[in-house]
User: Fold this.
Amino acid sequence: MAEQFWQQTFADLETSSYPVLPAVGYQSSITKVTDYEIDRIDCADSSNSPYTISTKLQAAWALLLAQYANTQDVVFGTTMNDLQNPASMQDVFPLRVPVNWESDLAQWLQANQSRVATMQDVQPRMSLDQIQSCSPEAKEACEFRTSIVLRDSEPEVYKVCTDIPSTAVK
Assistant:
């Protein structure tokens, strides 16, 4: 079941990775890590929004990468809130986020949140090495060059907020 899920997730993957490598066969190495910790996120009237903060941050990251890579099919590494040690690379998985600049923001966020919720049933059963062996597209997806690590040290940090309006992403 998990292998089939990852094959379907990355079927017909057409993405440009950011940052672009300078040459074919170039072996990249980590030269800089940006680590920013948000100690507290205040959410006013959080009961009105169905989207988690992690969904909003992943969506913002996807939009940024789509713009920089000039693609509408974004893949980056991320983590899930419920994993034991989200700072570990064992808990990082490739997240595919299709970006349609004409889509309704509310529908797009809901689709992304649903996608991650589905992955929560599958991901803890497969490592990154196992995912990349599912298909050539899955292997390509696992070669992501950016990631966003979301760690939930206190459950209230991931309450939903109302700060993103339900208008089209333009």
